[in-house]
Amino acid sequence: MSDLADSEAPLAVTDRPLTQDGPAVRLYLVDGSSFIFRAYHALPPLTRKSDGLPIGAVSGFCNMLFKLLRDMNSDAPTHLAVIFDHSEETFRNKLYDQYKAHRPPPPEDLIPQFAVVREATRAFGVSCIELPGYEADDLIAAYSCKVRDAGGEVVIVSSDKDLMQLVGPNVSMLDTMKNLRIGREQVIEKFGVGPERVVDVQALCGDSVDNVPGAPGIGVKTASALINEYGDLDTLLARAGEIKQDKRRQTLIDFADQIRLSRALVQLDCDTPLPEPIDDLAVREPDKAVLGAFLETYELRSLARRIGEAGASSSGAIPSTPRPAPAEVPESAIDVSGYVCVRDATTLESWVARCYEAGTIAFDTETDALGSATAGLCGVSLAISPGEACYIPVGHCEKEGLQLEEAADLVQIPLDQVIAILKPMLEDPTVLKVAQNAKYDIAVLSRYGIDVAPIEDTMLISYVLEAGMHGHGMDELSALWLGHQPIPFKQVAGSGKGQVSFKHVELGKATEYAAEDADVTLRLYNRLRPRLAREGLLTVYETLERPLPPVLAAMENAGVKVDPIFLRNLSNEFSMRMADFEAKAQALVGHPFNLGSPKQIGDVLFGEMALTGGKKTATGQWATDSDVLESLAAQGHELPRVLLDWRQLSKLKGTYTDNLVAAISPDTGRVHTSYALASTTTGRLSSTDPNLQNIPIRTEEGRKIRKAFIADAGNVLISADYSQIELRLLAHVGDIEQLKRAFREGLDIHAMTASEMFNTPIEGMPSEIRRRAKAINFGIVYGISAFGLANQLSIPQDEAGAYIKTYFERFPGIRAYMDQMRAQVREHAYVTTIFGRKINIPDIRAKAVGHRQFAERAAINAPLQGAAADIIRRAMIRMPEALKRAGLKARMLLQVHDELIFEAPAEEAEATCRLVSKVMEAAPEPAVSLSVPLVVEARAASNWDEAH
DNA sequence: GCCGTCACG
DNA sequence: GACGTACGTGACGGCG
After folding, report:
1. CB 3.0–4.6 Å: which of A342, A562, A566, A675 could bond A392 by disulfide?
2. Ranges for the 3'-5' exonuclease domain (predicted)?
């Protein structure tokens, strides 16, 4: 059959010279059936206005076709076809009558759309290809092989794993729904083997959806391990007797025939006849009349408008080579003297042209201050290949306000022009931009009207690979991986009082510093990026990390409104009351002392007054923390209470009232925090400058601070928080039946725990009993110890020990979970979350027992805290788009670990509460299906205190 | 620049 | 038997 295709349909490729810019044929093969289903499920059930004909899948399909034809510049197809399944019966059913036997019929409202989709395809001037007796996958395989062998390039538009066996040089897949490229490394991440061995792995693990039997009890992990060990399936089956594990060996021997059959079922047939010659698939302009009539018939008005607009403007195609895969570069010494300072437009344009050629570049922005939400741009650096980098200054000036034109050595391209030249490249989908801590650059450049995309972030790549092992700042990564110490910022800008803003740094030094940052970033990328797929962490990076910088940049830039007058009044009130406490304390002692000095307090309490019951800190000083002072106060002493009261106010004033006012940006009148994405071991964010994740709430006095966080006029603040998320995750991960049931039934979880432990009915339970159970539940999540629980509850240690014992008797699954985490961390020195995030805990190998025990407790806590962090990250990533789709104007402002804070128009408060709750509760899906419900409580009010 | 303390989840 | 003791953060003032 293949002869026929070869002889009758000679490939155009051979006739056409290969251009410098890439292969002459770039064939896009759209997996029609799979796309229809995804469009159907992803989109709301749209219908034709006039008669209610279901049209959602058709609309999604047309949008994608349009996008393929118009959006992509250098990657645009020269040839394009949509491939459909033709009939249910194929040659595979002759091999195995149960093949795809359990497929449910398509949804009723989808059935009429199948024919319309074919009509749509033709209306766009694109070929529809199908062949009786063959699946679309086989046709895709045949076209792919032909074009690839003739030197062309193929992009398969599908995310179907069955097609991954086709990936290889010049054949990639494109998941348009997720906007992901699937190349060799993504295949390796999915199957644990390269594309050439995918069928072997699939043959072993089978596929329940297609009803491919495989070998019982063997999943992807085991299958890929076996294939990697033996090389290929035939060798494995031939040498199955050598397998050590009894059960596995027997399975492979007993089911050898079934495994071979499975391989035949999943193996795609490259010799499938081609119904249309490749030449006929060339992309052609759609006939405007035909397309217009189609869009009119199905009332696809918004698409018709977009097509009209696109037709009016120029295509803007920019020639470039396809993006090269990042490769390991030979390490070479970093030489800062070769960097270029770009100071005229022509040179800048040539650098931009080289960026297009390179396909992957690194960049960095330099600013005149630290806060990305307000800092001004000083310049941008670009690195095109290791050692080849430049700096484009835009805002450098003499310190005393000298005009640029007056100083010859400060001549720079005007800001507007730099932006005009850089913007198209920085926004071009065919140029991948790598940054170190991309959130910063995104935030700065977005204020200059540039939306940088696509972006990768070396800091986040490092974080995914090695969280918990070390920091992820550039200097540290450079020292670690490149053996190179980048020029310290201090060396170019000075330090302490003599430090100057970067805009006052002389251009030569600025170029060395800035271009080196881009150069180092590119080298780090080349070094670290390939590890993601190899180590199975690409999905974690792509789903939990890479999408977040733009989301956080928008939150930081939005900021939150804070009432300065309210805070100043509060500050004055606190000052006056502190003065009273101070006078009282000094009267009690009989002489002045500094209430802010723990050392002096220790001397007073345990020296002069000779109180008993003190403890020492790690450095041998008297401890005077609130636990100590509380217990002294309980003994009946007066001074400790005064000190505690003074301290509370001192803390609130020093850390909150005064500094929050100081943090209000003069430009925006709001407070802009900065979120660190890679500072915690567990995947949580942290907030700095100022920290808005530790605003007081637990005491009456503290809550007053929260009242200062307010919504802009006409708006409300909405606080939405996950209820008991870590305990719910414990119930799921530890598979604790009683806990799961309690959460499903919406019971009071602490009361339920108390009831189970102490055999007390929930009705009329004394609050002290519930309080103790609550402390235990929290303690469990932290890796409980009798000492810690005793401390927390102020009860004797043996009593606390007895509680813990009872708890484990009532919930044996929890002990099992804890033991499992301990074993895992001892073996691997890391644990993982249910989303695959890896949390390293190197201290488990420490010499000191104390450190090791610490590590064990961290290992118990990390999968829970980490999974909660993963979940809220997923919610945050989806939130902006979800709000937009719902037509809501709300902006996400803050994140506090299990809480999101929004600012929304007052009249949209209810709708926003409903939507954000929905997005947050569904956040684990579809990656993880929790066996307990997630519950989110959302409230709107004029200030944060009342919204929470 | 470290330490003790304390704000949050 | 000793050891240090609930997980994860960031910011402040004191002190050397």
Report:
1. A342
2. 339-533
User: Which long-range contacts (C-beta less than 8 Å, at least 24 apart) are formed by A179-183?
Assistant: A180/A542, A183/A325
**Strand B-proximal residues, CB under 7 Å?**
A 598, 602, 617-619, 621, 623-626, 628-629, 644, 647-648, 651-652, 655, 693-699, 702, 865, 896-899
Max intra-chain CA distance, chain A: 108
Q: Pick from A519, A544, A559: which residue ends a domain?
A: A559
| Model confidence, pTM | 0.71
Domain extent at residue A106: 2-15+25-184+269-289
The candidate with the shortest Cα–Cα distance to A114, out of A94, A98, A128, A135, is A128
State which nucleotides on strand C lie below 7 Å from a protein beta carbon: 2-16
Q: Which nucleotide lies nearest residue A653, CA to C1'?
A: C12
Q: Are A58 and A120 in contact (CB under 8 A)?
A: yes
**Pair (A360, A278) in one structural domain:** no
- Please say whether the beta carbons of A95 and A42 come within 8 A: no
Residue A519 near residue A528, CB atoms below 8 Å: no
Beta pairing class for A377-385 and A455-457: unpaired
Let me know: does A24 contact A17? Beta carbons within 8 Å.
yes
Radius of gyration of chain A (CA): 32
**Nearest residue: Cα versus C1' of B2:** A619
Cβ proximity of A563 and A449 under 8 Å: no
Residue A630 lies in a domain: no
pLDDT in tens, A314-366: 333 322 333 333 333 445 678 888 999 999 999 999 999 999 999 999 999 99
Cα–Cα dist A740/A68, whole Å: 46
Look up tokens 């719910």; give the residue: A728
